[in-house]
Write a structure and sequence with these properties.
heterodimer; A: alpha/beta; Rossmann fold; 7-stranded mixed β-sheet; 6% strand; B: alpha+beta; Ribosomal Protein S8, Chain: A, domain 1; GMP Synthetase, Chain A, domain 3; 5-stranded antiparallel β-sheet; 3-stranded mixed β-sheet; 8 strands; 35% helix
Chain lengths: 736, 201
């Protein structure tokens, strides 16, 4: 255990949740394969808080980092209660675009951003900040997870406390702190302000949501509050950049900030209660009325029965939309790639290049991109739910169910994040105080249906039922998709419940408190940007992992070339076809197909696929699916690109048909169709359960700081996937 | 009623001193406090050689540190000691001690603060409109004012009182509600301010 890592509640040796300090940037480089990691923020090298590489820290030496700090740079910690709008302020000041949402706990680690401010008149180069131009200096802001107190209960709060206490190894203490306070909940935010004012660094308050305070009939006078607290107070609207100017001016020179002659009471108690009350009185504070729309909507949406039904109905309708709205869009993307395909056959005469383009690029990578519309729609829904404020409600609703499973509502927030991608979901477990709950949630989160499963599900469902089939009025495809999502969620809950029953993970329930933010009309640009960021990451993933596996597969599929044998088969087939009276064109085509099949069937890829065939034969998979499955353990979508690629290799002109009509090439099922109903059902179930994602495995390893838990997760999910697929295969075979 | 203990740098710049503003009625005498008559928590700080002098007056306590001690270092301890004393019923044990007299002292302090508000910019604001608002009295935190001049019969007077004056008075520690002498019922707590009036504040 390196000393980079913060101690947990239990002794390190006993703590199953022992993990790297999330902030130890040596330990946890952002996962480039994860669509949500590493977006925004400065790189480690630019981070002014970084101390020189610590030779006692294995991560430093392992990575050979030599980042030199800029010891004179001004650094500000942004602290505040969850959902106070720290990240909005951070983004507005730095011009970065970190993910924000109208629910608590969106930020789980420290991110550093830079902003340029006017230099104070008296500053001398090197004393207050680094002079970059004549009259501006660069200052650095650190966005931190929300915390109710500097006395932490969960790892994400621990980051804040450690950073401000100067206890983070390798990172120096920020020179000043900005406390971001939601004006509408000022009363309970002042305790954190009091704690911050006892840190011994200059502190200023950024008062957010003042517009909402106004509209809800509340009142607070920033000038009065400034006098009462004795520190600078600036009222802002986080989403309006122009209101941040006064804060920017503050950032130039924290040493000039007024500080009270005696700091407020550091510890909770009657003295501090009195201090808070006094400050509120002096600031002319009047609590805002409850958000009346929110109250009315919540009466329905938080209803134990109706709320749950509405939640399910929203999800159900959403999957209908995925198939009815996205299908035509998907058609356009398909058309585009078909058009590209004809371009290749018409204009590329070099056979190897043409084969690479049509098979690996158009068949493989293009096969995934076809599903971009569905993925974007999915991200649109998630982004909407986050920004409107529905996520907290969903967490609240499921808390009841979750607590029965032995998990708390915070775990559901992590689970909800896993709907987009399990990696941020697993990172979101940092908000969970109990390390045991954290592990149980981490073990279950990959079962939530992540966006990587969408292409797989859409492809397979499309082969299973026709687009026009209906269940009552609803698209049968949408209904199946909804069912698969539901299966994922229920399985995740059950898995969590089972893990909580394990002796080493049993623990009492911690009280669950969560801000219920008022419903807010999300800004269109914010929703679209969130969606676009996620989609962009998906595209990046396609450009990296999928492209790489497609190239590897292309090589494995076309080698060894066996040119002589292939030519011989070609000639034989053509001759036989001509003999049986086929036209010359047909005969040549048949010869090409036979020759290609021969090369495929005898390729290295086929050898690998056939080697593992016995494992998956009971599920009805043939070697081609097996190749896809093997590849999909890197990332789930690979199976789609692999199958697309194999189909394109077999019949470049009509890969869809080739895929649907694929037959077993050998064994006792030779000549039978591969994609029968039982096989497709088995595949769907396999993909519901299997942990086919290296990024997730890596995330589990980082968060638990051991190989034990990722190994357990992978194994139990594989076993579960195989059994579920087998049962599904048997039932489907019996029914049809 | 809270203690409303707020440390301020001394207005006259006296070195080594902190002026503690305290809630109304908690200090009812004006005197230098010698160590031997100071309440126990404060005397302990004298004994520890942290405090050199303490002076009380209504609404304010001034503490002076000995050499080698400072607000930064020992302010928290002084705050705790003062809070312990002032949070007792009756506040600082000096001057009249029975409940009615404590309350009267508090009202007197509130009245002074209300007069200050009426004399300052709020008075200027009403005067511009030809109106006049006078303090009639303070009873247990309830402030009574009378309307005069152009206020009388003015349709906006009620709003001026409830939305503007009451809001300012609500920042005075110990203030509870505002009444007018003519209408003895308490004005409703302001709950809604139309946008067009907000600017006028």
């Amino acid at each position: 255990m390196s000393d980079c890592c913060s101690p947990g509640g239990l002794p390190a040796s006993e703590d199953p949740g022992r993990r790297h300090d999330p902030d130890c940037r040596h330990a946890a480089p952002p996962d480039s394969a994860c669509p949500h990691c590493g977006s925004g923020g400065l790189t480690a090298d630019e981070d002014p808080g970084r101390l020189p590489a610590d030779s006692s820290c294995p991560h430093c030496t392992a990575q050979g980092e030599t980042a030199e700090p800029a010891p004179d740079a001004l650094r500000f910690a942004l602290i505040g209660c969850p959902n106070a709008g720290k990240t909005s302020v951070f983004n507005a000041l730095t011009g970065l675009r970190l993910k924000t949402g109208n629910y608590p706990g969106v930020t789980v680690t420290r991110t550093v951003g830079r902003t340029r401010v006017k230099a104070p008149a008296t500053v001398t180069a090197g004393a207050g900040g680094r002079r970059s131009r004549k009259d501006t200096i660069d200052v650095y802001l650190e966005d931190l997870p929300g915390t109710y107190s500097l006395d932490p209960i969960s790892p994400d709060e621990q980051v804040v406390a450690d950073l401000l206490g100067g206890r983070l190894k390798g990172i120096s203490r920020p020179g000043a702190a900005l406390v971001v306070v939601d004006a509408t909940v000022l009363e309970r935010s002042l305790a954190l302000v009091a704690e911050a004012m006892n840190l011994g660094v200059p502190v200023a308050v950024v008062l957010t949501m003042t517009d909402e305070m106004d509209s809800r009939g509340g009142a607070v006078d920033p000038v009065g509050l400034e006098q009462a607290l004795g520190i600078p107070v600036r009222a802002v609207i986080g989403t309006k950049k122009s209101t941040l100017e006064p804060v920017r001016e503050l950032l130039a020179d924290p040493s000039s900030w007024p500080q009270p002659i005696v700091p407020p009471p550091a510890v909770a108690g009657p003295e501090r209660v009195d201090w808070v009350r006094s400050a509120l009185t002096e600031a002319g504070y009047r609590a805002p009325s409850e958000h009346s729309t929110t109250r009315r909507i919540d009466r329905l949406l938080l209803h134990p029965v109706w709320g749950m039904l509405i939640f399910l109905a929203i999800m159900f309708l959403f999957f209908q939309v995925i198939f009815t709205v996205a299908a035509p869009l998907q058609g356009y993307v398909e058309d585009f790639f078909n058009w590209l395909g004809t371009l290749v056959t018409d204009h590329v005469s070099q056979p190897v290049l043409a084969d690479f383009l049509s098979t690996a690029l158009i068949g493989g990578v293009g096969g995934i991109l076809v599903f971009l519309p569905q993925i974007m729609l999915m991200f649109l829904l998630i982004s909407l739910m986050e920004n409107v404020g529905y996520m907290s409600r969903a967490a609240y609703l499921t808390d009841r169910v979750m607590s029965r499973a032995g998990l708390e509502g915070r775990a559901f927030v992590a689970m909800l994040s896993s709907l987009a991608c399990a990696v941020p979901g697993i990172m979101a477990t940092r908000t969970i105080p109990s390390s045991r709950d954290r592990i149980a949630t981490t073990m279950a989160a990959p079962l939530m249906t992540c966006s990587a499963r969408i292409p797989v599900f859409v492809l397979l469902i499309g082969m299973l039922v026709d687009e026009s089939s209906r269940v009552w009025f609803f698209s049968a495809q949408g209904v199946i998709m909804f069912g698969l999502y539901l299966l994922g969620v229920v399985s995740a809950m059950l898995a969590a419940a089972v893990f909580k029953r394990l002796k080493s993970l049993r623990s009492g329930l911690m009280p669950f408190y969560m801000e219920m933010p008022p419903y807010r009309v999300p800004s269109l640009s914010n929703v679209l940007l969130t969606m676009w960021d996620s989609s962009k990451e998906f595209l990046a993933k396609v450009g990296k992992i999928i492209l790489a596996t497609s190239i590897v597969l292309w090589v494995l599929l076309s080698l060894p070339p066996r040119t002589d044998q292939a030519d011989a088969i070609h000639e034989q087939t053509v001759a036989a076809a001509l003999a049986s009276g086929a036209s010359e064109d047909d005969a040549l085509a048949a010869g090409d197909a036979e020759a290609r099949s021969f090369v495929l069937d005898n390729s290295y890829a086929a050898a690998i696929g056939k080697a593992v065939e016995p494992v998956f034969a009971p599920l009805g998979f043939d070697w081609r699916i097996d190749i896809g499955i093997l590849g999909s353990f890197a990332a789930r979508e690979v199976v789609v690109s692999t199958l697309g690629q194999i189909a394109a290799a077999e019949d470049p002109d009509n890969p869809d048909q080739a895929l649907a009509n694929m037959v077993h090439t050998h064994g006792d099922k030779q000549g039978e169709k591969v994609f029968t109903t039982p096989t497709i059902v088995a595949m769907l179930l396999f993909f519901v359960y299997a942990l086919q994602c290296m990024s997730t495995v890596g995330a589990i390893r980082r968060e638990t700081n051991s190989w034990k838990w990722p190994l357990i997760a992978w194994t139990y999910m594989f076993v579960l996937a195989w059994i579920a697929a087998f049962i599904g295969y048997q039932i489907a075979a019996a029914v049809s | 009623m809270g203690v409303h203990l707020t440390p301020l740098p001394p207005a006259d710049g006296a070195p080594g001193c902190v002026d503690w503003r305290v809630g109304p009625g908690l200090v009812r005498a004006e005197a230098d406090v010698p160590p031997d008559t100071a309440p126990a928590p404060v005397r302990a700080l004298f004994d520890a050689d942290v405090l050199a002098a303490v002076r009380i007056e209504p609404g304010r306590i001034r503490t002076r540190f000995t050499d080698g001690h400072s607000a930064e270092q020992d302010g928290a301890a002084v705050r705790s000691a003062l809070f312990a004393v002032l949070s007792q019923p009756g506040g600082w044990p000096a001057g009249p001690q029975d409940a009615a007299e404590v309350s009267a002292a508090a009202d007197a302090e509130i009245a002074a603060a209300v007069r200050q508000v009426l004399a300052d910019e709020f008075g200027a604001y009403t005067a511009v409109h030809g109106g006049r608002i006078d303090l009639v009295g303070v009873d247990d935190g309830v402030v009574t004012v009378s309307l005069g001049g152009a206020c009388h019969g003015c349709s906006a007077a009620g709003r001026t009182l409830s939305e503007n004056l009451a809001l300012r008075l609500s920042r005075i520690p110990g203030y509870r509600t505002l009444r007018t002498a003519a209408a003895p019922t308490a004005l409703p707590k302001p709950t809604f301010r139309p946008r067009r009036f907000r600017r006028s504040l």
